[in-house]
Design goal:
Length: 295
């Protein structure tokens, strides 16, 4: 009997120790893990010009890639040692699962901050501001959202904010009769469908539409039309319950803005001589000023 009790007690002790190890592993902070492993894993877009894409030289480039490099540099400065940057592709369907599963430590692309997404992930401070419009062939009779009535409209399958925006427009009678939503897992696939006349218009953030148009074989054959249906503040995707990591990313972002480096990156991709010329709106400029926190 005593022997059985000792065996049970020993088993319970091992179980408690294993649970303690598991708890400490789960409780480990992202910053602590990055310092220990010397590696940060970053999710980036591959088919979203100019936020993240593969250029003609086969290089992974873009606005989000450059912003990620600034955070990478801040990590190396914090730990005073080289940190390996591992890049993983993400798209609108995979970005949330990649964060929640721990496959990536951070995701930088063109993700709108929404209350629904805040239930499962965390976001950085907003770092980009745009709005949703329409891309159509030049000369199309579609000039604004009411003209979508009965038409086939493409949009990203993982862009829930955009899908909800169209649904709300139809529910409010702005698009009547309703349009047909055609979903694509990447914007470049949607643009290909538009070129092949499989859809009448493509709907997403104006910054993305500008990139699609700029990279077209004949940019002049396409135009961006319509009012802003919604405003879209972009945030950097982060795991939940990692306050120290979120604070670090936010501080790096604010210092990138205050130093003028953010403006340089913006001009590189969106300036008059950039890949996708897109003037910064007054609202966007005010957002950056509001984010210039004092030290």
């Amino acid at each position: 009997m005593k022997r059985r009790i000792l065996v049970i007690a020993g088993g319970l002790m091992v179980l408690v120790l294993l649970m303690g190890v598991a708890y400490r592993a789960n409780a480990e902070g992202i910053l602590e893990k990055i310092e220990k492993t010397g590696t940060v894993t970053m999710g980036l877009r591959e088919g979203a010009v100019p936020f993240g894409f593969i250029d003609e030289k086969g290089q992974w480039v873009g606005f989000g890639v450059d912003l990620g490099e600034e955070i990478h540099k801040a990590l190396e400065a914090k730990f005073n040692k080289p940190i390996q940057l591992v890049k993983k592709p993400m798209d609108p369907k995979t970005r949330i699962p990649l964060i929640t599963s721990g496959a990536i430590d951070i995701g930088i692309g063109s993700t709108t901050i929404t209350l629904a997404r805040e239930d499962v992930v965390d976001f950085s401070l907003p770092y980009f501001l745009t709005g949703t419009r329409l891309l159509v062939p030049k000369g199309s009779p579609i000039k604004d959202f009411p003209d979508l009535a009965g038409k086939r409209v493409g949009m990203g399958s993982g862009s829930t904010a955009n899908i909800n925006g169209i649904d709300q427009a139809m529910a409010a009678g702005l698009i009547a009769p309703p349009c047909e939503k055609v979903l694509f897992d990447e914007h470049n696939k949607g643009f290909l469908a538009l070129q092949q006349n499989k859809i009448h218009a493509y709907f997403t953030d104006a910054s993305m539409l500008a990139g699609m148009k700029a990279k077209a074989e004949k940019p002049g054959d396409w135009e961006i039309v319509g009012r802003y249906l919604t405003y879209e503040p972009y945030g950097i995707l982060l795991p939940e319950n990692q306050g120290e990591w979120r604070d670090f990313v936010n501080a790096a972002l604010v210092r990138t803005i205050k130093s003028g480096r953010y403006q340089q990156i913006y001009d590189k991709w969106f300036g008059p001589k950039g890949q996708v010329p897109l003037a910064m709106s007054g609202e966007f400029t005010m957002l950056l000023k509001a984010l210039s926190y004092p030290e």
